[in-house]
Design brief:
The protein is an alpha/beta fold. The protein is built from 8 helices and 18 strands. An 8-stranded parallel barrel has the order 3-4-7-8-11-12-17-18, surrounded by 5 helices. The chain has a 4-stranded antiparallel beta sheet with strand order 5-6-16-13, with no helix packed on it.
Amino acid sequence: MLETRIGKLKLKNPLIMASGTYGYGEEYRRFYDPSIVGAISSKGLTYAGKAGNSGIRIWETPSGILNSIGLENPGIEHFCREEYQEMRSLDTGIIVNLGGNSRDDYLRGAERLNDLDIDLIELNISCPNVKEGGLLFGLKCDSAASITREVVDLSRHPVMVKLSPNGDPVADLAQGVQEAGAAAVSLINTVQGMAVDIAHRKPVFDNVYAGLSGPCIFPLALRMVHQVAKAVDIPVVGLGGIASAEDVLAMLMVGASAVQIGTMNFHDPFLVPKILQDLEAYCQENHLENISEIIACIK
């Protein structure tokens, strides 16, 4: 009833756990069996690992959070040795979120992942290109397409590109990475925001700006998913502030084949089983044989 697909990847339901909000899945065993989810996108990984940003990293905002984690992670090699087998044992789709600060970072990471049995690479192009003055790979259509093409050519896994809402029009970015060989796109990544410590008259974050996520960005994400779904032929995965079954259904109706749930996992660690129950009830009440019948019903 809830089965769906991202290209050749068959999911038991359309719920994917978003990168950076679910670890590698093991942490949620205390709440429910992680195998109930359609797939898990790993914590964002870089080839060499990163210590992350200094100072405050999380700041609560109305209906969301600002984060400045800085892609702290143990690196691809550590993941391959320590986390991969445990993640693989969870009996769900395995997506590895791959980031990098240079072309070589991405390519070395993708090449190492060729040794693993994973279902999809989620290419995080919202990373600063240190060799190009810190400009994010994903802000411009040409740089987004270029790094996508190189990773696709090297990887034996299908590549889903995670799109930023902070650069060129997102539909243009999606078309560019589709032409470069992307098997799917996911969107939106966090929206750039800021917080001020008025007591000390300075920015809250050492990096000044941070990524805004949570229900406050859902209407923006929904609009962009709708635009992208009309612009490309590859599957679209919608994310950004999803907090309920109604949000999931809205994303599917505007063209998403699946969705990712992120920030709201922190707010309610039991959210996923609740949403799955509500989605099944919706299908039954509306006499749907499969939830995919509503995908892109809104043109």
